[in-house]
């Protein structure tokens, strides 16, 4: 599960949609620590097919689609089991 608190904090103040290029720039200095290593958040956002995001939930869904399943943890592992 991706913790979106930090995404929400950086999104705060944005009005309406944010385009992918702006999101990439906004998160280019963020490193995600994954179960099998680390990834630059800006680079991952650049891989999302959507050109714009209406809300942080859209960005989170896009991230789940570009992350490999094994990068997030064991299948069927709940957050409390980590």
Notes on the structure:
The protein has 82 residues and is α+β, with helices and mostly antiparallel strands. It has one domain (5-70). It contains five helices and four strands. The protein has helices spanning 5-11, 20-26, 41-47, 56-66, 69-72; strands spanning 18-19, 31-34, 37-40, 52-53. The strands form two sheets. It has a two-stranded antiparallel ribbon with strand order 1-4. It has a two-stranded antiparallel sheet with strand order 2-3. A hairpin with a 2-residue loop joins β2 (31-34) and β3 (37-40). The protein is globular, with a radius of gyration of 13 Å. The model has no long low-confidence stretch (mean pLDDT 76). InterPro entries: DUF5789. Pfam families: DUF5789.
Order of helices and strands: HEHEEHEHH
Rg result: 13 Å
Domain unit count: 1
**Content of β-strand:** 5-15%
Global morphology: globular
Main β sheet profile:
2 strands, antiparallel
Q: Give the oligomeric state.
A: single chain
- Share in helix: 40-55%
Measured distance between first and last alpha carbons: 11 Å
Q: What is the number of beta strands?
A: 4
Low-confidence stretches: none
InterPro entries: DUF5789
Question: Topology of this structure?
Answer:
Layout: H1 5-11, E1 18-19, H2 20-26, E2 31-34, E3 37-40, H3 41-47, E4 52-53, H4 56-66, H5 69-72
Antiparallel strand pairs: 1-4, 2-3
Which features would summarize this protein structure in a list?
alpha+beta; 82 residues
